[in-house]
């Protein structure tokens, strides 16, 4: 039976990290976590959690407002986590990864479906429909009890198509800053499945909502989709029935009425030119990484010219 390895990268997620580790551990043979400079006690929870197989603790966190540099740094961290798990588990090309953020949950009953996915030979990368949940006027005052799914019942009908389960192929590499965009796969071996993910990124607490909005405004100004997600008020009114981009409904209603889903506002794409020219693309990205040094050399030459006038 192929192995399934859970991957999780977090920073300052004390509220949800314990719950998410358990969620992944219920699905996977092992769970590996990258803590990206947490200062709120998240790392201590990871270190003590009995279901964490291994972790990486990054002591320095320095985001960049420059889009390419920021994506490059995130790609390096994610590949470091993947390669760490590869070494520890002695993985083969038949094994699989599951990657989620700390606020994402697979739909109920997915564990039984997962066993069929990892044994089939036709596909290497599985796409899921991801739906956003929201804080509403019906549940805004409910305190966190260790299970965010019991707190928030309302989601939007809009969805994104994203990969969450992918095979450990030798050519796997990341460029675009996220495990959301793994490259190296054959387009014919990608399955756009009907399986669903619940996303609680905007449904934790009102304070968290505003803190995340401030982060995106400061460090993710180049990402219009990310910035847009936090321009609406944090609390949605159930009686109005509106989410950010679609209708506001309960999860059970969405499952019972699949015809109401939509709009689709993001779809994973392979960037085939990146796959075919991996060496050239990686070389270009590393040259961009040297931009700081090149900039200093240019500045130094300019300074010398000023002195020689």
Give the termini separation: 73 Å
> Helicity level, as a percent range?
25-40%
Q: Main beta sheet, described?
A: 10 strands, mixed
As residue ranges, the low-confidence spans are: 305-309
Q: Which overall shape is indicated by the principal axes computed on the Cα atoms? A: globular
Number of strands: 14
Strand fraction: 15-25%
Which architecture of the largest domain per CATH? Alpha-Beta Complex
CATH class descriptor name of the largest domain = Alpha Beta
Number of separate structural domains? 2
H/I helix tally: 11
Mean pLDDT: 84
3D architecture notes:
With 309 residues, the protein is of the alpha/beta class. It has 2 domains: 4-271, Alpha-Beta Complex (Spore Coat Polysaccharide Biosynthesis Protein SpsA, Chain A); 277-309. It is 36% helix and 24% strand. The chain contains 11 helices and 14 strands. The chain has helices at 17-25, 42-48, 67-89, 110-119, 148-151, 206-219, 224-228, 251-256, 272-276, 278-289, 291-307; strands spanning 4-10, 30-36, 54-58, 96-99, 104-106, 125-133, 135-136, 154-167, 173-174, 182-183, 190-199, 235-236, 248-250, 264-267. The strands form 3 sheets. Strands 1, 2, 3, 4, 5, 6, 8, 11, 13 and 14 form a 10-stranded mixed beta sheet that branches. A two-stranded parallel ribbon has the order 7-12. The N and C termini lie far apart (73 Å). Residues 305-309 have low confidence and may be disordered.
């Amino acid at each position: 039976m192929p192995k399934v390895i859970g991957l999780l990268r977090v920073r300052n997620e004390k509220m949800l990290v314990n719950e998410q580790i358990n969620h992944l551990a219920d699905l996977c043979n092992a769970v590996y976590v990258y803590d990206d400079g947490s200062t709120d006690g998240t790392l201590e929870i990871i270190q003590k959690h009995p279901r964490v197989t291994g972790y990486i603790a990054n002591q320095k966190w320095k985001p960049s407002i420059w889009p390419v540099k920021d994506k490059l740094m995130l790609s390096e961290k994610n590949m470091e986590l993947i390669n760490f798990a590869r070494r520890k588990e002695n993985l083969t090309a038949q094994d699989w990864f599951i990657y989620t953020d700390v606020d994402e949950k697979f739909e109920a009953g997915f564990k039984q479906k997962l066993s069929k996915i990892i044994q089939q030979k036709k596909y290497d990368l599985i796409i899921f429909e991801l739906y956003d949940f929201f804080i509403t006027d019906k549940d805004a005052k409910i305190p966190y009890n260790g299970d965010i799914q019991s707190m928030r019942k309302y989601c939007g009908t809009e969805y994104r198509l994203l990969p969450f389960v992918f095979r450990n192929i030798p050519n796997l590499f990341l460029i675009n800053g996220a495990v959301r965009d793994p490259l190296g796969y054959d387009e014919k071996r990608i399955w756009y499945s009907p399986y669903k993910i619940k996303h609680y990124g905007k449904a934790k607490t009102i304070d968290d909502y505003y803190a995340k909005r401030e982060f995106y405004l400061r460090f993710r100004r180049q990402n219009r989709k990310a910035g847009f997600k936090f321009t609406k008020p944090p609390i949605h009114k159930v009686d109005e029935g509106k989410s950010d981009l679609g209708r506001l409904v309960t999860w059970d209603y969405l499952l019972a009425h699949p015809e109401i889903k939509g709009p689709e506002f993001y779809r994973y794409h392979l960037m085939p030119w990146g796959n075919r020219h991996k060496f050239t693309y990686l070389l270009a990205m590393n040259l961009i990484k040297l931009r700081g040094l090149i900039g200093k050399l240019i500045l130094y030459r300019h300074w010398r010219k000023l002195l020689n006038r």
